[in-house]
Every structure is written in C-alpha cells, then in structure tokens.
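Sample intake — NADH-quinone oxidoreductase subunit N
Collected from: Natronocalculus amylovorans
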Amino acid sequence: MDPTVVTTAALQSQLPEWTALGPVIVLGLTGLLLLTIDAIWPKRNANTTYAIVSAAGAIIALGITVWYLVAGTGQETHGGAITLFSEAIVVDGMALFFTAIFTSVAALVIVASHDYLKGHENSAEFYSLLMFATTGMALMAVSNSLVTVFVSLEMASLPSYALVGFLKKDRGSVEASLKYFLIGALSSAVFLFGISLIYAVTGSLLLTEISAQFADGGVAGFAGVAGIGVLMIAGGFAYKTASVPFHFWAPEAYEGAPAPVSAFLSSASKAAGFVVAFRVFAEAFMPLLEVTPAIDWALAFAVLAVLTMVVGNFAAATQENVKRMLAYSSIGHAGYALIGLAALTAGGPHNGDVMGAAMAHLLIYGFMNTGAFLFIAMVEYWGVGRTFEDYAGLSQKAPLACVAMAVFMFSLAGLPVFGGFFSKYALFASAVSAGFWWLAAVGAVTSALSLYYYSRVVKAIWIEEPNGNLDVIESKPTGLYAAIIFAAVATVLLLPGFPIALETAEAAASALFA
C-alpha cells in the first residue's frame, strides 16, 4: 500500500467526526463571505474579487473532498459510513463522489462567469447564489432522512430559480425563471406529500428505518398508500433530473438562463437529483421489490429511462438552436443515468456495478456537458448568434476552443477513444450483465442517433464557411476560454483515469447494498 495514502488516512482519522462535513461547511461559508464582503465594501467593479473568493471556496471544498476519498473516509475499508445528527446525515463514498462532481462543475462555472459578468453590478449576488446552490447539492449528497432530503433540495432549488432569472432586463431569462419556479413549486408539493405518505406508513423519516419497516413486512396493510408515496417521490426526482414526462421545464430554463447557469444546472443539478434518488431508492425502498412486488418502482424507472432516452435524443435532433439542442441532449443523458435505477433487482449481484457505472457516467458527463455549455457562453459573449448557421467557421477565430468543443461533442455522442464512450460502455455492459439488455439496446440506438446532431455542431464550426457574422469577435474572454480548455483536458484525462473512477463509484454504490 502507498505510504502516502496510509499517512493521509491516519491524519483524517484523528479529526472530529463533524469535519466529515468539511466540503459542505466550506461552500456555505464561502457564500456567506461573499455577502459579507459585498455588504462591508460594496464596489461596483469587484467582479474579480468575488470570482477569486468563489473559485477558492469551490477548489478548497473539492480538495477536501478528494482528500477524504483518497483517505477512505466513510467507506467500508475504513470503518464504514459516518453518521451525524441522529443519522440524518451520512458521509460515505457516494456522498463524496458526487460532491466532487458538484464542486468541480461549480469551479469551472465560476471561472467562466468572470468574463460573462464583466461590468455587471450584481456579481456578488450571482456568485453567492451559485455557492449556496452548490451547498444545497452537497447537502443532498449526505442526506439520510427524507426531511433532510427535502430541505437540502429546496436549498439547492431556490438559488437556482434566482440564477435562471439573473438577467433581469432580459425577457427570456425572467420568463424562464418564472416557469422554472412555478413548476418547481408544484414538484416540491408533490414530493413533500409523498414523504408524508411514507411517514404515515412507516412512522419514520430515516432511510434505514424505512427500509427496516418495509423489510419486516409491517406495512403490508398499507401497501396502496406506500405505493402512492413512492410514486410521488419518484415523480419529484424525475422533475429534478429533467426526466420525461417531467422534462418540459428544462429546455425553457436552459435556453433563457445565462449560459454558465445552464451549464451548472444541466450538470451539477442533474447529478444532485440522481445522488438522492440513488440513495433513497437503493437504501429505503429496495425491500419493496422483494416484499411487495406490486410496488415495482424499478419497472417505473425503466419506463422513464426508455422514454427519456428516446424523447430527449429525438427532440434534440430537430433543434436549430444550439443551446436548446444541448438542453434536450441533457434530457437524453438523464435517461442513460436512469439505467442505474432501472436495472436494479432484489438481491441482484450486479446492483453495485449498474449504479456505479451510472455514477461514473455522471462524472464524465459533468465535464463534457459543462464544457459544451461554456462554449455556448463564449459565443453568447461575442454576440455571434444561437443557431447552427451562426456557428459556421468559428474555428477560424477560436481554433483551440473549437477543438475542445469537438471533444465535448464526440464524447457526449459516445464515440470510441473519448471518455463518454467508456462510461456508456460500462453502463450498458453492466445493464446487460444484470439482464436488462433491452435498456442497453435502447441506449445504444439513441446514442447512435445523437451523433447526428452533435456532428452538426462540429461540421458548422470546422467545415462550413463563415457567413459574415464573426466580424464582431474582437477578443477572447480569458476566464471562459480557460474553463473550456480545462474541461476538455479533464475529459481527455478521464480516459486513462476512468478505471479508477469506475472502481471508486462501484465500491461506493455497492456499500448501499451490503
């Protein structure tokens, strides 16, 4: 064993248990620090200061998260999960894995937003809202109680509504924010009612106690009530992950929001929805598949996965607006991640592999999808346009960024040699091993379809001739450019690092089924 890892693990084990929440605490304190700085030293041109503070907070939280992962904090090899606050909070491998995704995406978006918010008088509010939303997502990852899940979900959602409508003078941004808020409020009400039904049946909100109640068969007389509660909770998660038929808010919100916000929501927010869904259904509702076969929530997720993959990819293929195309593309990728729930079976030997592969896909998706939206943010910054035709010949003005965009597109499509291929292959292979070959088949077919609309972007920026609208490009925004290149480099570096990421994800997922 590497002596460095041993030393790191020994050092971490000497810390108080509450420090396991270090990433959440750092993110929350950074958001408060931004508001404090803005209140004490209000400056209209302090965008750089706020960006540095925000990026530092996100990077420190990411560093702590990676340190904990390397040290084995909360993992089976080092004493198991750490529970806090009467087991309402749990820090384990899954929580840390997803927190690494949230903080990575947040750091990229913060760096990119420095140029996007240049000259904006409310930049402190933007960065603080972004940090508070990331805090809520990190808290979602460690939630071990349905009430903690709901509170953290709202902590992530409320700042997100404001971020979508941040461009107050832009009608599209305000309209998208209002739609997002109204649909989100309805979804929260349905989700909360589902929680109340589960509490009425089991008498508990802790996931472990709910699981014990279902496993003992003590709620057999209330199977109908439990089934409705599970269905409502599943609907709440489907909304958060933009899964069909609860997806209609996503294209509107992503198109109207500032492009960095779209990148944040389509990557980090989607991953946040999945980490909670994975934990709740794998830990609390898993016994239902064996004790009460009538409540077959895995079949419901299988139907959602197929519909989401098909509708998302076919809708993306019909779009002329590049940003809207990526919005529908993100819906399709939610369908791929849903396989991590749809292919679960009672006592299945491949449950950890399937869910772990879905987690690994969400990790790679976080970089390639964020990078793609940040490329759109750069194009919006230049004022070039939003359609495929407007992107024609962009490689002549920004060749390095266009290389990065090609990497994102081919990786999202799942072409061989790119990171997206390995994550999709692992996901589909694990589904086949679990006996759900038909889910893998639908995923493979829709992935092949996605190559059509992803290649349209590459064709436009590299092959087609400019139509004269590129003359407005005068300079390259440093922050945006750097974030795009870094996301591309991370996507490429995940190729040799994918086996490690997959092994870590599978180990974290398998712990839920132990």
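Post-analysis note: Residues 296-514 form one domain.
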